[in-house]
Amino acid sequence: MRSITHICGLNAGFLFLFTRIVQILEKVRFASIHDFIFLVDFIFYVWYNEGMRKCSKCKVKKSLDDFHNYKNGKDGKQHYCKDCVNSQVPNKMKKMKETATHKQCRICEKMVDKKIMYVTYCKPCEAKRARETTIEKKYGITMSEYDVLFDSQDGLCGVCSKASKISLCVDHDHKTGVVRGLLCRQCNSAIGQLGDNIEGVASALRYLMKD
């Protein structure tokens, strides 16, 4: 909360505001005292809020000086105040440790031999990060949702019910994009080769059941 001195600012500014109110009163006839109070409140509100805006994250009204410049934003400022922006600085902006032979991974933050680094990530973290990104972009599910599916199937393929040495594939309807479950690579490939539909699987079943 700003102090009375800060709200009023310099005496000259307050005097100017008071003068403007008097000038308006000389030209306007008010139906009631309520109209007069409303006008005065409105003028003070506009003057008080000039050069202020509310942060979209912390919801606190702050001076425009508390926001970084952004030419496409309202008032030429960012939506988040500087404090909120600084609190969200991602790990990729953090300076990582480095020696002649080792470098710190930005994800696990372990010191890793540079020979097994992908620029800023160690190989295990890079593989995990790439897989998470692929799953989210291609199938529209997060790794948390993937893990829920995995646990619901007890870590087994949804078709052959066998454990897989590698990560289970995400099986989805190619027409609707709806995720159906997790399959081992062999079963997922087989369904795809059969047209990814019931007719193809049924046709293969009839063939196998022939005498």
Describe this structure in words.
The chain has helices at about 5-10, 10-25, 35-50, 80-85, 125-140, 145-150, 185-195, 200-210, and strands at about 50-55, 60-65, 65-70, 75-80, 100-105, 110-115, 115-120, 120, 170, 180-185. The chain is elongated, with a radius of gyration of 32 Å. It has about 210 residues and is of the alpha+beta class. The longest helix has 17 residues, at about 10-25. It has three domains: about 5-85, no CATH class; about 95-140, no CATH class; about 140-210, His-Me finger endonuclease fold (3-Layer(aba) Sandwich). Strand 3 (about 65-70) and strand 4 form a beta hairpin. About 10% of the residues are buried. Residues about 1-10 have low confidence and may be disordered. The strands form five sheets. The protein has a two-stranded antiparallel ribbon. A two-stranded antiparallel ribbon has the order 3-4.
Radius of gyration: 32 Å
In which order are the strands of the major sheet placed? 1-2
> The biggest beta sheet, please?
2 strands, antiparallel
Portion in beta strands: 15-25%
Measured distance between first and last alpha carbons: 87 Å
SS elements, strand count: 10
Number of domains: 3
- Per DSSP, the total helix count is 8
Unreliable stretches covering 5 or more consecutive residues = 1-11
Helical residue percent band: 40-55%
Give average pLDDT, whole number. Answer: 77
Structural class, from secondary structure content? Answer: alpha+beta
Shape: elongated
**Helix and strand pattern:** HHHEEEEHEEEEHHEEHH
